[in-house]
Amino acid sequence: MIMRVCFEYARSSSVRGGCRQRLDGGRRGQAPSDATRSHAARAKPRDDAWRAAPRSAEQTAQADRGGPGSLCARAQRAALGRRTARRCLARQRAGGELWIGVPPFLSELALEGPIDRLREAFPRLTLRITAGWSPALLQNVERAALDAAAVMMPASFPMPETLVSTLLGVQPTVLVAARDFALPPGPLPLDALARYPWVLSQDGCGMRSALSRAFSAAGLPFDVAVEAFGSDLQLSLVARGAGLGIASAAALARSPHRDALRIVETADVEPGINVWLVHGVLPGRLMRPVELLRERLVAVLEEERSARLGGEAQIPAN
User: Fold this and answer.
1) What is the pLDDT tens value at each position of the chain, 318 positions in all?
2) Boundaries of each LysR substrate-binding domain copy (predicted)?
3) Cβ pair 222, 216 in contact under 8 A
4) Whose CB among 35, 185, 274, 317 lies 3.0–4.6 Å from 263's, allowing a Cys bridge?
5) Residue by residue, what is the 3-state secondary structure of 109-132?
6) What is the spatial distance between Cα 164 and Cα 46, in angstroms, rounded to a whole number?
7) What b/e readout covers 234-251, taking b as 16+ CB neighbours within 10 angstroms?
8) What are the DSSP calls for the chain, one per residue?
9) Alpha-carbon distance 277 to 304, whole Å?
10) Which domains does the chain have, with CATH numbers?
């Protein structure tokens, strides 16, 4: 833009100078053409008006030496302002696609408030949401198949150093059984829990991984009797006596089967699971959307925690 404005100014000056030379040439015996006379007649009033415009001596000197008052300097400032405005607008209007992964136990949280907020803040951004187990989501982020993912992993799990991992919170987990399920009283050690069948998600679930690690480290059997997708179905089967289960405290608090369940106390299983937001190197257009996603997920997890506090005391423990 700056070069074009300066070029136009130089070209118009050259044209005016050329017209004067041709007119002078006419006085030397070379008759100017009709086009030359017409252009000179139009250019002279503009030149006279520009010269007659009131200007201070400093403005005249600046214009002569290309200073802040010159045409090129003004064009530079105008172009710089437009570029700055475009950069600000680009930051506010992130476009393209954002690929996000969420595990099943977080899908309701992540797909309601946070995703709606992203759509409102960045209407030109196309959101691509995929659900999957946390280990697979981590691999997809490492391969750049996903831009970002919310994952749930045991506290003992080491997060990949190649990714940017932000801890969003800790989701409490509880072991559950039917109220009439035959269990010994008091907190149960891991070897006692190994005697019973389990109702769990498919292999790859973060909570199942936490249990599997604990039993494997102790050299104990781990009997998964039923693999069921979704906490509602799992808690329904546990309430009917199909086996022991594990669920997030939030899922248990809102379950319609909570009155038929009780919490199984133990000190040998991690009582919570970490919730992370992970991503690789992001292009500039996605940095603010991912940051907003992080902020909203933290807020939603805190709201879930506040809503859960009152309900936990109403669920009996063994």
Assistant:
1) 434 434 344 444 444 444 444 434 444 445 555 555 554 455 455 555 445 555 555 455 454 555 555 565 666 666 666 655 554 454 445 579 999 999 887 776 657 788 889 999 999 999 999 999 999 999 999 999 999 999 998 888 899 999 999 999 988 889 999 999 999 888 999 999 999 999 998 888 888 888 888 899 999 999 999 998 888 999 999 999 999 999 988 888 889 999 999 999 988 887 788 999 999 999 999 999 999 999 999 998 888 777 766 555 455 555
2) 92-279
3) yes
4) 317
5) HHHCHHHHHHHHHCCCEEEEEEEC
6) 62
7) bbbbbbeebbbbbbbbbb
8) -HHHHHHHHHHHHHHHHHHHHHHHHHHTT-PPPHHHHHHHHHHHHHHHHHHHS---HHHHHHHHHT-TTSHHHHHHHHHHHHHHHHHHHHHHS--EEEEEEE-HHHHHHHHTHHHHHHHHH-TTEEEEEEE--HHHHHHHHHTTSSSEEEEEEETTPPPPTTSEEEEEEEEEEEEEEETTS---SSPPPHHHHTTS-EEEPPTT-HHHHHHHHHHHHHT----EEEE-SSHHHHHHHHHTTS-EEEEEHHHHHT-TTGGGEEEEP-SSS-SEEEEEEEE-SPPHHHHHHHHHHHHHHHHHHHHHHHHHHHHHTTS-B-
9) 17
10) 2-92 (no CATH), 97-312 (3.40.190.290)
Beta bridge partners of 149: 101, 278
